[in-house]
Amino acid sequence: MAVRALLHYALEVPDQTVGEKFYTSFGLVDEGRRDGAVALRPAPLKRETVLLYGGPSKRLHHLAFGAPGDDFAATKESLRRAGVSQVDPPRGAPEGGLWLRDPDGNLVNVRDEAPAPPPPDPPLRLNSPGHIGRQVDRGAPESTATATPRRLGHVLLFTPDVPRQLDFYTRVLGMKLSDRSKSIIAFLRCTTDHHNVAFLTSKGPGFHHGSFEVGSVDEIAMGAVRMQERGFQPGWGLGRHVIGSNFFYYMRDPWGSFAEYFHDLDYIPEACAWEPRDWPEADALYRWGPPVPDDFGLNREVEA
Questions:
Q1: pLDDT at residue 303, as a whole number
Q2: CB atoms < 10 A from the CB of 276, how many?
Q3: Does 122 score more than 60 pLDDT?
Q4: Structural domains in the chain?
Q5: Cis peptide bond N-terminal to 28, omega within 30
Q6: Distance CA 228, CA 261 (A)
Q7: How is the chain split among helix, strand and coil, in percent rounded to 5?
Q8: Rounded to an integer, what is the distance from CA 283 to the centroid of its chain?
Q9: 3-state SS of 64-83?
Q10: Integer distance in angstroms from the first to the last C-alpha of the chain?
């Protein structure tokens, strides 16, 4: 691979204070403002994973990937071979790395940085038929429990041309296709996660959601409860995806997109002979859960 980690995503939003409230209620730590951007991170990590810039409406500002050492040099060479020009960084963006635009015009920052994984959780203690992992200990979460995201896992972007984005991110940036559903949606990885970036077909580009790993299904549900108590609208869940297999809950953000809690995502070792599957459309979203909201796939950046 060339890029090795999804480091952060950055959005332009019409009200940064509203954005701060949403993401801190979601469980991220507010690092304050730097160069005009609100910086937020999961509590176990030291670097930001979400940046919020001011702008007239919500849109993706940029994505940042890590490509340490030889992988950074390989990325530069891949861009040169593909005829992709580097561009100037936007004002106020984090310093360092190289900048380019993908075929949809999204700004991408590739940085000579290694990923910094969070410390591991202790193993879950669960009881199942014939396997007792928890004894003389009540398993229900406390009424005050909430979600503490450990890390950013992936982003889902809208695109008018899924195959074109798939070609660019695999051929030029070195990501791998994990699974897809025709030309509707494609899932790509640059780590051992099943996916770090996904593309969903739409009339134009746009940001759908960022997804953050938590430690259990209870944590997903309690995080959703806490968000609703703070006045934020539920989006979709609790459920389980087919592609990627993760449990999910999507909270609707203030701009019509989403932030997702996830747990138990498929793991694909780098040397694994994983065969991408073209899933039927019926399996593109979920195996079980409540009905999909009518506006879940609506790209509000281009559709009313």
A1: 81
A2: 13
A3: yes
A4: 5-115+147-283 (3.10.180.10)
A5: no
A6: 14
A7: 15, 35, 50
A8: 20
A9: EEECCCHHHHHHHHHHHHHC
A10: 38
